[in-house]
Amino acid sequence: MSNNSSSQPRFSAGADPAALEASLAPLLTSNGGRWALAAEGEALEREFKFKTFAKTWDFMTAVALQCKLKNHHPEWSNVFNTTFIRWTTHHPKGLSAKDVELAAICDSLAKDFGEVVVEQTQTQQQGAEQAQQLQQACGLSGLANRAAGSAGDCCVPKTAT
Ligand SMILES: C[C@H](O)[C@H](O)[C@H]1CNC2=NC(N)=NC(=O)C2=N1
């Protein structure tokens, strides 16, 4: 899964595009939210920062509990006080209601766990986006890509034998 940015979401088969557009819109950076579309519109991703590793891990534990409840997993990585999270649906491929729902849940859990929000000027934001692209190979999204690449067919529905 690459993090090619994209301006248009690509929903997974069976999704309700109108309903999903409505819940997705406020999450996107283009509308004042904090998530970016990636992987040609098939994924939503962002980074979260906390004061300490302990807080970061507590946040990730809370997210993992939600994943268990919803039977949906993220592509994610962590180094020290930062976690990178990407939501995408592997089967059927694309953005689904679960991705959008879990992205919103992450925002709210991050607040509860004391997310450190670094406000950026427009110029800093553009610089950060360029740096993010450069970092892709070795940064947190690169780590998540490597994990996603070797995870195998995690989401193929099981067929009766
Ligand atoms: C077979 C089972 O329903 C699948 O593995 C579920 C579990 N979690 C999942 N998580 C994600 N991100 N995408 C999926 O397609 C998916 N499918």
TrEMBL record:
<comment type="similarity">
    <text>Belongs to the pterin-4-alpha-carbinolamine dehydratase family.</text>
</comment>
<dbReference type="Pfam" id="PF01329">
    <property type="entry name" value="Pterin_4a"/>
</dbReference>
<dbReference type="InterPro" id="IPR036428">
    <property type="entry name" value="PCD_sf"/>
</dbReference>
<keyword id="KW-0456">Lyase</keyword>
<protein>
    <recommendedName>
        <fullName>4a-hydroxytetrahydrobiopterin dehydratase</fullName>
        <ecNumber>4.2.1.96</ecNumber>
    </recommendedName>
</protein>
<dbReference type="GO" id="GO:0006729">
    <property type="term" value="P:tetrahydrobiopterin biosynthetic process"/>
</dbReference>
<dbReference type="GO" id="GO:0008124">
    <property type="term" value="F:4-alpha-hydroxytetrahydrobiopterin dehydratase activity"/>
</dbReference>
<dbReference type="InterPro" id="IPR001533">
    <property type="entry name" value="Pterin_deHydtase"/>
</dbReference>
